Amino acid sequence: MADNLQEQLYQNLRQALLSGRFQPGERLKIRDLADEWGTSPMPVRAALQRLVAEGALEGEPQRSLRVPVMTRERFLQILQIRQSLEGLAVEDGVPRLRTADLEVLKTCTELMEEAVQRRDVQAYLEHNSRFHLTLYRACGNPTLLRMIEALWLQVGPFFNRLFTEADLSQRLNDFHEHALEAIQRGDAQGARAAIEQDLAYFGQYLLNLLALESGGRRDVR
User: Fold this and answer.
1) Tens of pLDDT along the chain (221 residues)?
2) Domain 2-66 top-level CATH class
3) CA distance readout (Å), 218 to 62, 71, 82, 191
């Protein structure tokens, strides 16, 4: 029973990080999370330590752990790896998608568009992570998927920054729509190109934010 509870807590925390529920630098207090989920601190602590081992959280003395603060150098390193791995997963995954998967992708695209119109950050990020990870999980390569999800755990909290400028919100869903159109045609390379464009565009945008915050010069978009 204790192992099942720890696993459930771990999966809940993992999904929260993947979907951007937590902010970079946010402290996660073991006792607060235990109170929220109505459990003792021990299984919460064990679940959090698993995420520390995966690089998704940083340990702090005694009482809490922290979502790592993103730096421009670290984000660029992760982005370069993501572009290669996620592109490969898309190309391998498209021919393997089932009818149920296609329905999930279509629904996520529609819900993301509604979230953009409402400027609902959390709803957008939740549907965004479901769209991407549904697509990647179809690749049939568990090793590749583990690598992708490990990187998403590190960058998920930083995706909250996507709504900091009004002009960006109008393009948030364009690449997903292009990817979905390619998927519906059975065009794996076209879907890969759309996802890689998505990563490149928004990756550059977030790199620009980090450059500004560190006092650097904004890159050209």
Assistant:
1) 557 888 999 999 998 888 888 888 899 888 888 898 888 888 988 999 999 988 899 986 556 789 998 888 999 999 999 999 999 999 999 999 999 999 999 999 999 999 988 888 889 989 999 999 999 999 999 999 999 999 999 998 888 877 765 555 667 889 999 999 999 999 999 999 999 999 999 888 888 888 877 765 444 33
2) mainly alpha
3) 39, 15, 22, 30
Strand partners, 66: 27, 58
pTM assigned to the model: 0.84
Domain extents in the chain: 2-66, 72-213
What burial letters (b/e) apply to 180-192, b meaning 16+ CB within 10 Å?
bebbeeeebebbb
| Strand ranges (E), the chain | 27-29, 58-59, 64-66
Q: Where are the beta strands (DSSP E) in 43-184?
A: 58-59, 64-66
Q: What is the CATH number of domain 72-213?
A: 1.20.120.530
Cα–Cα dist 69/219, whole Å = 21
Q: Whole-angstrom Cα distance, residue 156 to residue 152?
A: 5
Residue 64 region, left (φ>0) first, then alpha (ψ -120 to 50), else beta? beta
Which residue in the block uniquely carries the two structure tokens 């390569």? 141
CA atoms within 13 A on the CB side of 167: 2
Q: With the C-alpha atoms ordered 176, 181, 185, 187, is the resulting torsion angle positive or negative?
A: negative
